[in-house]
Amino acid sequence: MYQEVAFLAGSTEHQFTTFHFNPLENPQEVSSKKGLFYKRAQLLLQPQPRQLDSDELGLADGAAIINVGGIKYRIPWSTLDEFPLTRLGKLRSCSNEAEIMDVCDDYDGSRNEYFFDRSPLAFRTIVTFLAAGKLRLLREMCALSFQEELLYWGVEENNLEWCCLRKLRLRQEEYKEQQRLEDEEVELTSPQSCEESQQPPGVGGQDEGRMAGCMRRLRDMVENPHSGLPGKIFACLSVLFVAITAVTLCVSTMPDLREEEERGECSQRCYNIFVLETVCVGWFSLEFLLRFIQTQSKCMFLRTPLNVIDAVAILPYYITLIVDSLSVGDKPAGSGNNYLEKVGLVLRVLRALRIFYVMRLARHSLGLQTLGLTVRRCTREFGLLLLFLCVAMALFSPLVFLAESEMGAKQEFTSIPGSYWWAVISMTTVGYGDMVPRSIPGQVVALSSILSGILLMAFPVTSIFHTFSRSYLELKEEQIRALRLRRAAFSFLVLGFTALIVCSACAPECIQVSYAFSFFFFLEELQKSFFTYLTAKDG
């Protein structure tokens, strides 16, 4: 009934009997009740007396029969004595049945057999470790699941081979990072994190359902371009206005327009640029307002980075209008004047913040979303890159200053802080040429800084590249999975309406109305369920 594996000790080379493991279908880890295994076995099979031969009698006293998921192993007590801190080693010190049941899931005292309701696949590796002292990960088993098995059997992770231990550590870091990102996402999208507006009393369930349906459709339109035609049109308009804003900002910096602005004049072209900018800002304000209305948590919406960027990009336009109207009350908005000179540098910086409109493309671009996710996941690598750069800059700047000040014919390096710029430009292999070492020692220092910069930049960049690739694949798979779910929902609804039409054509008129109404409400509820699931999936 069970496959038995002999586990012998007494020599440096342990011998095993030939055995084969049949593939398990749908293995599931379940918590077993103490003593239930052999009680069921005794009810199903009548115990039949069996004569033990001399070999089995010898092994019964000097070995323990370990039954893991139906596969039996005969392990000598002398082998378990070498691992007293493991779960199997604790069996040796058990003096009564109660202590044994605390260690294993079931026990048969007549045959000295201990049952463990665990994965036999993982225990095979534990057996190899007990026999030969080699502990390796399994390809067909998740590393984190194998870690749980090691924790259960009391085997330390440090006993793993160095290559397997590195894989386990890497998988643990990935899992922790993924959990941290999921917790942050849940915190940002959780409606319980902020006080929600309460509905006034007396609102009926029908009005509440209509409002929820409208908010759901609005959320799909502004947040999900793949939800349907309204979402695609909304996304295309948003991208179009972003492009128009970027072109308008570039054209407004042309020399002739700047001269008109300095003279306080406004030509027809200047007025047209102002009209385009007003239309674009109006669209962005409407989009920001719609996103604010449809969100469940208003406070968390205002704390989202992309929404903060939208607010920073929109507010300077209204601030300039207010300052313009206060500076020159009788002039129309958008006419050329010198209001920038009156409010100073702060308003110039605010006006330049319109370039942040380009960041709105991240809502509709998978590549930009991947870039943002990579930056969030690689904060440690970016910090390491900055540390390398600062250390090398602090090293090569004094060296090149000393070499050029002592032996250089032309004093281009006036101080060590002034040499920091040259060190950064050299290590990043940009080389503007504004500061050039002339002496041979200075050129040697320059060559060393360039080679060091190439090597130091390459180390963190490799990890950042792998993180970018992994993030892109994750977002791509999530997008494909969401598209499949929506297509399946749409196909199901189409089939439902087709069946409704066929039934209404075949059934009598008296039954058509009842079937139509019942089937319509059924499809409506089904559609709500699908949209609720997809919204939760995307959120």
Walkthrough of the structure:
Residues 181-208 are annotated as: Disordered. InterPro entries: Ion_trans_dom, K_chnl_volt-dep_Kv, K_chnl_volt-dep_Kv5/Kv9, SKP1/BTB/POZ_sf, T1-type_BTB, VG_K_chnl, Volt_channel_dom_sf. With 539 residues, this protein is mostly helical. It has four domains: 4-19 and 30-117, Potassium Channel Kv1.1, Chain A, CATH 3.30.710; 211-361, Up-down Bundle (Four Helix Bundle (Hemerythrin (Met), subunit A)); 379-475, Helix Hairpins; 492-538. The chain is built from 21 helices and five strands. The protein has helices spanning 36-44, 54-62, 77-80, 87-90, 97-103, 120-132, 143-153, 162-189, 205-223, 229-251, 255-263, 268-294, 298-303, 305-327, 339-343, 345-352, 366-377, 379-407, 416-427, 440-506, 509-538; strands spanning 4-6, 63-68, 71-76, 106-108, 113-116. The chain has a five-stranded mixed β-sheet with strand order 1-3-2-5-4, with helices on both faces. It is flat. It starts with a strand and ends with a helix. Mean pLDDT is 72; it is low at 1-32, 43-60, 189-205, 330-337, 510-517 and 533-539.
